[in-house]
Amino acid sequence: QVQLVESGGGLVQPGGSLRLSCVASGFTLDDWATGWFRQAPGKEREFVAAIRWSGSSTYYADSLKGRFTISRDNAKNTMYLQMNSLKPEDTAVYYCAGRWGTFWVTKPNEYAYWGQGTQVTVSS
């Protein structure tokens, strides 16, 4: 049974940084990929970034390139999202999601596994 557990959310001032973590269990590395999504109140769930667990391939939403960095530590079964220069519009619940197959997938309904989400609030 695949499980994903996010942590690291919180309140941060504009311009600050935050690192989210997602611990994954119950998966095998072959073709395993995970991604970050976010959902602000009243908005649809939005793709942030994705990473493949075999190799180092990553994929980002164009609007977030340069500020957000996705990475993973296979030894710890953990994926990270480093978020820098945060803006109020980055405020959302951030979700970790997992799937097997192509990793550059941006549609939420193509991910089979989801974490419970972690709240990120950017405010002064």
Please give a quick description of this structure:
This protein is 0% helix and 50% strand. By secondary structure, the chain is mostly beta strands.
Explained architecture:
With 124 residues, this protein is an all-beta fold. It has no helices and eleven strands. It has strands at 3-7, 10-12, 18-25, 32-39, 46-52, 58-60, 68-73, 78-83, 92-100, 113-114, 118-122. Strands 2, 4, 5, 6, 9, 10 and 11 form a seven-stranded mixed β-sheet that branches. The chain has a four-stranded antiparallel β-sheet with strand order 1-3-8-7, with no helix packed on it. The radius of gyration is 13 Å and the shape is globular. The model has no long low-confidence stretch (mean pLDDT 94).
**How widely separated are the two ends?**
40 Å
Poorly predicted runs? none
Return the structural class.
Answer: mainly beta
Mean pLDDT: 94
- Give the ordered list of helices and strands: EEEEEEEEEEE
Task: List key phrases describing it.
11 strands, 4-stranded antiparallel beta sheet, mainly beta
Outline the secondary-structure elements:
Elements (H helix, E strand, L loop, with lengths): L2 E5 L2 E3 L5 E8 L6 E8 L6 E7 L5 E3 L7 E6 L4 E6 L8 E9 L12 E2 L3 E5 L2
